[in-house]
Design a protein that fits this description.
It contains six helices and nine strands. It is globular, with a radius of gyration of 16 Å. The protein is of the alpha/beta class. Helix 1 packs across helix 5 (108-120) and helix 3 (58-69) packs parallel to helix 4. The longest helix has 16 residues, at 152-167. The chain has helices at 5-12, 32-43, 58-69, 88-95, 108-120, 152-167; strands at 14-18, 21-28, 78-82, 100-104, 126-128, 142-146, 171-176, 187-196, 206-214. A seven-stranded mixed β-sheet has the order 5-4-3-6-7-9-8, sandwiched between helices. The chain has a two-stranded antiparallel ribbon with strand order 1-2. Bound molecules: S-adenosylmethionine. The site of S-adenosylmethionine has 25 residues, from helix 3 and helix 4. Residues 49, 52-53, 56-57, 59-60, 83-86, 88-89, 104-107, 110, 131, 133, 146-148, 150, 154 line the site of S-adenosylmethionine (SAM).
Length: 222
């Protein structure tokens, strides 16, 4: 890798307010496919992950909007943002008064973007860069999971991990714009928002994204 992840993020994004969540500013791109090509060149890896960190996805936008309307969900509490991407949910949680916020992602560029974005929003965010989905649930009171249902293997692991967290008394909020692997039967809808996200990868530029809680285990039949 020629440049540091931090320098790469700065070179390929622009810091700006998030549509529909303008109190949060993130390093974002309008041309995610161009940034993806740059990642492939930078890492010399044609299979490199999409630069998820350079876009505010529908799920994270919905959680951000929900926390703005319901700050009491996180105020004074320890929050863990799974699959954090840009860090949008952790930053929204801190703005809503979370005592602490941890951002978790496995993409080195995402970790750099989260640090840059936390700094841009004057938020202290603890960054965790390993895959925690085979570990016990974290030391947190609330877990936020924005837009992590786009691949079946990831969706299966995320659901099991979130259910373990719920069974230990951790509150879980899921945000999602209707991805194929969203486990709808396991969720309870809390709110719906019209969000504007990237137009290149989504079929509609404006779409409805929803916030859910996890269904209690007895209701789900376990
Ligand atoms: C679609 S993005 C969502 C980002 C952000 N939550 C949002 O809503 O804008 C999904 C993120 O999940 C991350 N991811 C994928 N597998 C993961 C894993 N096992 N653990 C943590 N993060 C993971 C990706 O790197 C990516 O940043």
């Amino acid at each position: 890798m020629a440049a540091s992840p931090r320098a790469f993020v700065l070179r390929h994004t622009r810091l700006r307010p998030v549509a529909g969540l303008v109190e949060v500013r993130l390093h974002l791109t309008d041309d995610v496919l161009a940034v993806w090509r740059a990642v492939q060149v930078e890492t010399d890896d044609p299979d490199a992950s999409l630069p998820y960190w350079a876009v505010a996805w529908g799920g994270g936008l919905a959680i951000g909007r929900y926390l703005r309307e319901h700050p009491e969900v996180v105020a004074g509490r320890r929050v863990f943002d799974l699959a954090s991407g840009s860090g949008i949910c952790a930053i929204a949680a801190k703005r809503a008064g979370a005592a602490t916020a941890s951002s978790n992602d496995i993409d080195a560029f995402a970790l750099a973007a989260i640090r840059l974005n936390a700094h841009a929003n004057a938020c202290r965010v603890n960054v965790i860069g390993r895959d925690v989905l085979d570990e016990p649930p974290p030391d947190a009171e609330v877990i936020l999971a924005g837009d992590c249902w786009y691949e079946a293997p990831l969706a299966r692991r995320v659901l099991l991990w979130l259910q373990r967290a719920r069974d230990r008394g951790i509150d879980v909020l899921v945000g999602d714009p209707g991805r194929a692997h969203l486990p709808v039967a396991e969720l309870v809808e809390l709110a719906a928002y019209e969000v504007r996200t990237t137009s290149e990868l989504e079929d509609l530029q404006r779409r409805t994204a929803r916030v859910y809680g996890l269904r209690p285990s007895d209701v789900a039949g376990r």
